[in-house]
């Protein structure tokens, strides 16, 4: 096992846990999946769409920022539009936004290890 650690965090991450967790980090309460312009370009190319079509199909504008849209799986259970419900994992993993790439090392969890442990079985 190889654990990932980041300076300033009291926990590490075992990415091998992702195979069996069912995509907890991709689903839950409705929220925002922030995405930057270069990430939009990369993701649009990855799925074979031009930027305009990608934006119409997969983005929502929130103030001056963009978020990927979500799909409702059940009451109070939302998932990223690219969450593969059958495989229980990200359907665009190679091109996922930095918000997804950096999980579980988010600033909001830096001083709240209990919250991230409850959400992610890979936290060690």
What does it look like?
The radius of gyration is 15 Å and the shape is globular. It has one domain (25-119). The strands form four sheets. The protein has a three-stranded antiparallel sheet, with no helix packed on it. Strands 4-6-5 form a three-stranded antiparallel sheet. The protein has a two-stranded antiparallel ribbon with strand order 1-2. The longest helix has 11 residues, at 37-47. It has 124 residues and is α+β, with helices and mostly antiparallel strands. It is built from five helices and ten strands; from the N terminus they run ββαββααββββββαα. 19% of the residues are buried.
Helix-strand topology string: EEHEEHHEEEEEEHH
Could you name the ranges where pLDDT drops below 50 across 5 or more consecutive residues? none
Rg over CA atoms, rounded to whole Å, is: 15 Å
- Please state the average pLDDT score: 94
Cα-to-Cα separation, first versus last residue:
11 Å
> Which range does the strand content fall in?
25-35%
Number of strands: 10
Main sheet properties: 3 strands, antiparallel
Number of separate domains: 1
What is the helix fraction of residues, given as a range?
25-40%
